[in-house]
Write a structure and sequence with these properties.
- It is a single chain.
- This protein has a single domain, classed as Metallo-dependent phosphatases (Purple Acid Phosphatase, chain A, domain 2), CATH 3.60.21.10.
- With 288 residues, the chain is an alpha/beta fold.
- Mean pLDDT is 83; it is low at 267-288.
- The chain has helices spanning 23-32, 47-52, 58-72, 125-129, 131-157, 166-173, 175-194, 244-247, 254-264, 270-287, and strands at 4-11, 33-40, 76-79, 95-96, 99-101, 105-108, 114-117, 199-202, 209-213, 216-220, 229-233, 239-243.
- Helix 1 runs parallel beside helix 3 (58-72).
- Bound molecules: manganese (II) ion.
Length: 288
Protein backbone atom coordinates (compact mmCIF):
# COMPACT_ATOMS: atom_id res chain seq x y z
CA UNK A 1 0.00 0.00 0.00
CA UNK A 2 1.19 3.42 -0.92
CA UNK A 3 -0.24 5.79 1.68
CA UNK A 4 0.12 9.51 1.07
CA UNK A 5 -0.75 11.85 3.90
CA UNK A 6 -2.05 15.22 2.76
CA UNK A 7 -3.69 18.14 4.54
CA UNK A 8 -6.91 18.11 2.50
CA UNK A 9 -8.68 16.05 -0.11
CA UNK A 10 -11.33 17.56 -2.39
CA UNK A 11 -13.63 15.34 -4.45
CA UNK A 12 -16.78 16.17 -6.37
CA UNK A 13 -19.26 14.67 -8.82
CA UNK A 14 -19.07 11.06 -7.67
CA UNK A 15 -22.70 10.42 -8.73
CA UNK A 16 -23.35 7.51 -6.36
CA UNK A 17 -26.48 5.65 -7.37
CA UNK A 18 -25.66 5.64 -11.09
CA UNK A 19 -24.14 3.05 -13.35
CA UNK A 20 -21.45 5.49 -14.44
CA UNK A 21 -20.06 6.05 -10.93
CA UNK A 22 -16.45 4.78 -10.76
CA UNK A 23 -16.69 3.67 -7.13
CA UNK A 24 -13.85 1.11 -7.40
CA UNK A 25 -11.44 3.75 -8.66
CA UNK A 26 -12.52 6.15 -5.92
CA UNK A 27 -11.93 3.43 -3.31
CA UNK A 28 -8.42 2.99 -4.66
CA UNK A 29 -7.78 6.71 -4.40
CA UNK A 30 -9.24 6.97 -0.86
CA UNK A 31 -7.11 4.02 0.22
CA UNK A 32 -3.97 5.82 -0.93
CA UNK A 33 -4.73 9.33 0.36
CA UNK A 34 -5.46 10.09 3.99
CA UNK A 35 -6.11 13.66 5.09
CA UNK A 36 -6.99 16.00 7.94
CA UNK A 37 -9.84 17.52 5.92
CA UNK A 38 -12.06 15.75 3.43
CA UNK A 39 -14.26 17.99 1.32
CA UNK A 40 -17.06 16.47 -0.73
CA UNK A 41 -17.82 19.22 -3.21
CA UNK A 42 -21.30 18.26 -4.44
CA UNK A 43 -23.07 15.77 -6.68
CA UNK A 44 -21.80 13.00 -4.44
CA UNK A 45 -25.16 11.19 -4.55
CA UNK A 46 -27.15 11.54 -7.78
CA UNK A 47 -30.79 11.89 -6.75
CA UNK A 48 -31.75 13.09 -10.28
CA UNK A 49 -30.61 9.87 -11.91
CA UNK A 50 -31.99 7.77 -9.07
CA UNK A 51 -35.47 9.02 -9.97
CA UNK A 52 -35.03 7.25 -13.32
CA UNK A 53 -33.06 4.19 -12.23
CA UNK A 54 -31.10 3.25 -9.11
CA UNK A 55 -27.76 1.49 -9.53
CA UNK A 56 -26.29 0.99 -6.09
CA UNK A 57 -23.34 -1.40 -6.06
CA UNK A 58 -21.37 -2.96 -3.22
CA UNK A 59 -18.42 -0.70 -4.07
CA UNK A 60 -20.64 2.38 -3.75
CA UNK A 61 -21.73 1.15 -0.32
CA UNK A 62 -18.08 0.76 0.64
CA UNK A 63 -17.40 4.36 -0.45
CA UNK A 64 -20.08 5.60 1.96
CA UNK A 65 -18.83 3.36 4.77
CA UNK A 66 -15.20 4.44 4.24
CA UNK A 67 -16.15 8.12 4.40
CA UNK A 68 -18.27 7.62 7.55
CA UNK A 69 -15.41 5.71 9.15
CA UNK A 70 -12.88 8.41 8.29
CA UNK A 71 -15.21 10.98 9.89
CA UNK A 72 -15.48 8.84 13.04
CA UNK A 73 -11.70 8.55 13.21
CA UNK A 74 -11.21 12.29 13.36
CA UNK A 75 -10.92 13.36 9.71
CA UNK A 76 -12.89 16.61 9.34
CA UNK A 77 -15.47 15.77 6.69
CA UNK A 78 -17.43 18.58 5.03
CA UNK A 79 -20.26 17.90 2.61
CA UNK A 80 -21.29 20.68 0.24
CA UNK A 81 -24.39 19.65 -1.74
CA UNK A 82 -24.53 20.11 -5.50
CA UNK A 83 -27.52 20.26 -7.84
CA UNK A 84 -27.82 16.47 -8.13
CA UNK A 85 -27.98 16.19 -4.34
CA UNK A 86 -29.81 19.47 -3.86
CA UNK A 87 -32.39 17.73 -1.61
CA UNK A 88 -29.69 17.98 1.06
CA UNK A 89 -29.52 21.77 0.68
CA UNK A 90 -32.60 22.04 2.91
CA UNK A 91 -30.51 20.67 5.75
CA UNK A 92 -27.48 22.92 5.31
CA UNK A 93 -26.04 24.00 8.67
CA UNK A 94 -26.78 20.65 10.32
CA UNK A 95 -24.19 18.07 11.35
CA UNK A 96 -24.93 14.49 10.36
CA UNK A 97 -22.98 12.64 13.00
CA UNK A 98 -19.40 13.68 12.32
CA UNK A 99 -20.14 15.23 8.92
CA UNK A 100 -20.78 18.97 8.54
CA UNK A 101 -23.28 19.87 5.84
CA UNK A 102 -22.73 23.40 4.51
CA UNK A 103 -23.76 25.36 1.41
CA UNK A 104 -20.22 26.64 0.86
CA UNK A 105 -17.02 26.91 2.85
CA UNK A 106 -14.04 29.26 2.93
CA UNK A 107 -10.95 27.10 3.42
CA UNK A 108 -7.67 28.63 4.60
CA UNK A 109 -4.77 26.76 3.06
CA UNK A 110 -1.64 25.93 5.07
CA UNK A 111 0.09 28.90 3.37
CA UNK A 112 -2.70 31.31 4.42
CA UNK A 113 -4.45 31.60 1.04
CA UNK A 114 -8.23 31.62 1.26
CA UNK A 115 -10.31 29.59 -1.18
CA UNK A 116 -14.04 29.38 -1.66
CA UNK A 117 -15.15 25.73 -1.73
CA UNK A 118 -18.44 25.45 -3.59
CA UNK A 119 -20.11 23.02 -6.00
CA UNK A 120 -20.63 25.73 -8.63
CA UNK A 121 -23.97 25.03 -10.30
CA UNK A 122 -25.12 28.54 -9.28
CA UNK A 123 -22.65 29.82 -11.92
CA UNK A 124 -24.00 27.56 -14.65
CA UNK A 125 -26.59 29.50 -16.64
CA UNK A 126 -28.04 26.32 -18.15
CA UNK A 127 -28.71 24.54 -14.85
CA UNK A 128 -29.98 27.75 -13.34
CA UNK A 129 -32.44 28.91 -15.97
CA UNK A 130 -33.08 25.96 -18.28
CA UNK A 131 -33.46 22.97 -16.04
CA UNK A 132 -34.95 20.74 -18.76
CA UNK A 133 -31.90 21.28 -20.99
CA UNK A 134 -29.71 20.32 -18.04
CA UNK A 135 -31.72 17.13 -17.50
CA UNK A 136 -31.56 16.24 -21.22
CA UNK A 137 -27.85 17.01 -21.32
CA UNK A 138 -27.40 14.80 -18.28
CA UNK A 139 -29.06 11.85 -20.03
CA UNK A 140 -26.95 12.39 -23.17
CA UNK A 141 -23.77 12.67 -21.09
CA UNK A 142 -24.55 9.43 -19.23
CA UNK A 143 -25.05 7.76 -22.62
CA UNK A 144 -21.59 8.94 -23.74
CA UNK A 145 -19.99 7.67 -20.54
CA UNK A 146 -21.69 4.30 -21.01
CA UNK A 147 -20.49 3.96 -24.60
CA UNK A 148 -17.04 4.93 -23.36
CA UNK A 149 -16.93 1.94 -21.00
CA UNK A 150 -17.29 -0.36 -24.00
CA UNK A 151 -14.80 1.63 -26.06
CA UNK A 152 -12.15 1.37 -23.38
CA UNK A 153 -12.81 -2.36 -23.10
CA UNK A 154 -12.38 -2.66 -26.85
CA UNK A 155 -9.17 -0.61 -26.71
CA UNK A 156 -7.76 -2.94 -24.07
CA UNK A 157 -8.70 -5.97 -26.16
CA UNK A 158 -6.91 -4.42 -29.14
CA UNK A 159 -3.91 -3.68 -26.95
CA UNK A 160 -4.14 0.11 -27.30
CA UNK A 161 -2.44 1.60 -24.25
CA UNK A 162 -3.68 4.49 -22.14
CA UNK A 163 -7.06 5.87 -21.30
CA UNK A 164 -9.12 7.80 -23.81
CA UNK A 165 -12.45 9.27 -22.94
CA UNK A 166 -15.22 9.75 -25.49
CA UNK A 167 -17.12 12.09 -23.15
CA UNK A 168 -13.87 14.02 -22.56
CA UNK A 169 -13.22 14.18 -26.31
CA UNK A 170 -16.75 15.45 -26.94
CA UNK A 171 -16.35 18.06 -24.22
CA UNK A 172 -13.09 19.32 -25.76
CA UNK A 173 -14.35 19.31 -29.35
CA UNK A 174 -17.90 20.54 -29.17
CA UNK A 175 -17.70 24.28 -29.61
CA UNK A 176 -20.70 24.95 -27.44
CA UNK A 177 -19.19 22.92 -24.61
CA UNK A 178 -15.90 24.81 -24.88
CA UNK A 179 -17.58 28.20 -24.63
CA UNK A 180 -19.80 26.87 -21.84
CA UNK A 181 -16.75 25.83 -19.81
CA UNK A 182 -15.09 29.20 -20.44
CA UNK A 183 -18.20 31.13 -19.37
CA UNK A 184 -18.51 29.03 -16.25
CA UNK A 185 -14.87 29.48 -15.22
CA UNK A 186 -14.95 33.24 -15.75
CA UNK A 187 -18.19 33.76 -13.83
CA UNK A 188 -16.86 31.68 -10.90
CA UNK A 189 -13.60 33.66 -10.92
CA UNK A 190 -15.47 36.98 -10.97
CA UNK A 191 -17.56 36.02 -7.91
CA UNK A 192 -14.48 34.90 -6.00
CA UNK A 193 -12.54 38.07 -6.80
CA UNK A 194 -15.52 40.19 -5.68
CA UNK A 195 -15.33 38.49 -2.30
CA UNK A 196 -11.60 39.20 -1.96
CA UNK A 197 -10.59 35.52 -1.91
CA UNK A 198 -7.51 34.01 -3.56
CA UNK A 199 -9.17 31.14 -5.32
CA UNK A 200 -11.97 28.67 -5.71
CA UNK A 201 -12.29 24.91 -5.53
CA UNK A 202 -15.43 23.73 -7.28
CA UNK A 203 -16.83 20.88 -9.35
CA UNK A 204 -20.03 20.54 -11.37
CA UNK A 205 -18.77 20.72 -14.98
CA UNK A 206 -16.71 17.49 -14.87
CA UNK A 207 -13.62 19.23 -16.22
CA UNK A 208 -10.72 19.10 -13.77
CA UNK A 209 -8.50 22.19 -13.78
CA UNK A 210 -5.88 24.01 -11.78
CA UNK A 211 -4.90 27.34 -13.30
CA UNK A 212 -5.29 31.09 -13.17
CA UNK A 213 -8.55 32.51 -14.52
CA UNK A 214 -8.65 36.32 -14.53
CA UNK A 215 -6.09 36.47 -11.71
CA UNK A 216 -7.89 33.92 -9.50
CA UNK A 217 -6.71 30.38 -8.69
CA UNK A 218 -9.40 28.39 -10.44
CA UNK A 219 -9.41 24.77 -9.26
CA UNK A 220 -11.94 22.17 -10.33
CA UNK A 221 -12.08 18.67 -8.80
CA UNK A 222 -13.34 17.04 -12.02
CA UNK A 223 -15.40 13.90 -11.44
CA UNK A 224 -15.53 10.19 -10.64
CA UNK A 225 -17.74 9.07 -13.52
CA UNK A 226 -15.36 9.67 -16.39
CA UNK A 227 -11.98 11.24 -15.68
CA UNK A 228 -11.50 10.09 -12.04
CA UNK A 229 -9.72 13.17 -10.68
CA UNK A 230 -9.31 14.81 -7.29
CA UNK A 231 -7.55 17.78 -5.75
CA UNK A 232 -5.24 17.42 -2.75
CA UNK A 233 -3.64 20.09 -0.57
CA UNK A 234 -0.19 19.15 0.70
CA UNK A 235 1.03 20.19 4.16
CA UNK A 236 2.73 23.30 2.76
CA UNK A 237 -0.53 24.49 1.12
CA UNK A 238 0.52 23.39 -2.37
CA UNK A 239 -2.39 22.05 -4.40
CA UNK A 240 -2.10 19.07 -6.73
CA UNK A 241 -4.48 17.67 -9.31
CA UNK A 242 -4.51 13.87 -9.06
CA UNK A 243 -5.47 12.19 -12.32
CA UNK A 244 -6.32 8.79 -10.90
CA UNK A 245 -7.98 7.62 -14.11
CA UNK A 246 -4.71 8.02 -16.00
CA UNK A 247 -2.64 6.45 -13.24
CA UNK A 248 -4.77 3.33 -13.01
CA UNK A 249 -5.65 1.10 -15.90
CA UNK A 250 -8.73 2.39 -17.69
CA UNK A 251 -11.69 2.32 -15.32
CA UNK A 252 -13.89 -0.71 -15.78
CA UNK A 253 -17.61 -0.89 -15.25
CA UNK A 254 -18.51 -3.13 -12.31
CA UNK A 255 -21.02 -5.08 -14.39
CA UNK A 256 -18.40 -5.70 -17.03
CA UNK A 257 -16.04 -7.06 -14.37
CA UNK A 258 -18.78 -9.38 -13.09
CA UNK A 259 -19.49 -10.62 -16.64
CA UNK A 260 -15.79 -11.22 -17.35
CA UNK A 261 -15.40 -13.03 -14.03
CA UNK A 262 -18.35 -15.31 -14.73
CA UNK A 263 -16.85 -16.06 -18.16
CA UNK A 264 -13.51 -16.80 -16.52
CA UNK A 265 -15.08 -19.36 -14.16
CA UNK A 266 -16.19 -21.37 -17.20
CA UNK A 267 -12.51 -22.00 -17.97
CA UNK A 268 -10.68 -24.69 -15.97
CA UNK A 269 -8.49 -22.88 -13.44
CA UNK A 270 -5.28 -24.25 -11.92
CA UNK A 271 -6.38 -23.37 -8.36
CA UNK A 272 -9.75 -25.07 -8.68
CA UNK A 273 -8.22 -28.29 -10.05
CA UNK A 274 -5.74 -28.51 -7.19
CA UNK A 275 -8.53 -28.18 -4.61
CA UNK A 276 -10.60 -30.86 -6.31
CA UNK A 277 -7.62 -33.26 -6.26
CA UNK A 278 -7.06 -32.64 -2.59
CA UNK A 279 -10.76 -33.16 -1.87
CA UNK A 280 -10.85 -36.47 -3.71
CA UNK A 281 -7.69 -37.64 -1.95
CA UNK A 282 -9.12 -36.75 1.48
CA UNK A 283 -12.58 -38.21 1.14
CA UNK A 284 -11.71 -41.94 0.94
CA UNK A 285 -9.61 -41.77 4.13
CA UNK A 286 -12.42 -39.96 5.91
CA UNK A 287 -14.98 -42.56 4.89
CA UNK A 288 -12.64 -45.37 5.89
MN1 LIG B 1 -23.45 19.47 -10.56
Amino acid sequence: MNLTRVRSVFISDVHLGTRACQAESLLGFLRDYSAEHLFMVGDIVDFWAMKREVRWTAAQNTVVQKILRRARHGEKVTFIPGNHDEALREHVGIRFGEIALVGEHVHTMADGKRYLVIHGDEFDQVTRYHRWIAVLGDIAYNGLVRVNVWLSWLRRRLGIAGYWSLAGYAKRKVKLAVSFVGDFERSVARAVRDRGLDGVICGHIHVAAMRKVDGIDYVNCGDWVDSCTAIVEHHDGRLELIEWGKREAAPIDADLVATLQSLATLQPRAGATATEHRASRDSPSRSA
